[in-house]
Amino acid sequence: MAKKDNGNRTLAENRKAFHDYFIEETYEAGISLVGTEVKSIRLGKANLKDSYAQIKDGEIFICNMHISPYEQGNIFNRDPLRNRKLLMHKNEILKLDEDVSRQGYTLVPIALYLVRGKVKVKIGLAKGKHNYDKREALKEKSAKREIDKQMKERYR
Questions:
Q1: Domain spans of the chain, in order of start
Q2: d(CA 67, CA 64)
Q3: Cα–Cα distance measured from residue 73 to residue 102, given in angstroms and rounded to the nearest whole number
Q4: Phi, psi angle pair for 17, to nearest 5°
Q5: Structure confidence by residue, pLDDT tens digits, 68-115
Q6: 10-129: which CATH topology?
Q7: What rounded mean pLDDT belongs to the chain?
Q8: Can you give the pLDDT at residue 5?
Q9: Who contacts 20 (Cβ-Cβ below 8 Å, separation ≥6)?
Q10: 110/118 Cα distance (integer angstroms)
Q11: Quick one: which of 22, 78, 28 has its CA closest to 53?
């Protein structure tokens, strides 16, 4: 669920993003939420799988991020899959818009975490991987695991 990360509390991660994309740059953004969504996120009920960020009219939104309704929220709960506005500086948004307009680039949310009580999103400027890239990454990962295992046995 939640783990410590440099004094920040990670609430949700998108591990699949690193498998499906080459993450070239990361950015931190605030996120516009209502109270029941914040409570639900703090309980670990957020899911970043299949979510993406999109720039419209100089504003950036996160789409397909699922936040389960808060159980005690009754009438104050919102749609779990609604688009949520991200809070970034205008010049950062313009730079991202320019970068995304290049062929094959997209914006992918990587993690949700708390910074001084505020929910933040780490977004990555990503380029899609092909299947052969994914297989190569898996080979490297298993080779590294095997080397680490051999080193551990050798120094026992």
A1: 10-129
A2: 9
A3: 42
A4: -60, -40
A5: 887 776 666 666 678 888 888 999 888 888 888 877 788 899 988 888
A6: Small Protein B; Chain: A; (2.40.280)
A7: 82
A8: 45
A9: 128, 129, 134
A10: 17
A11: 28
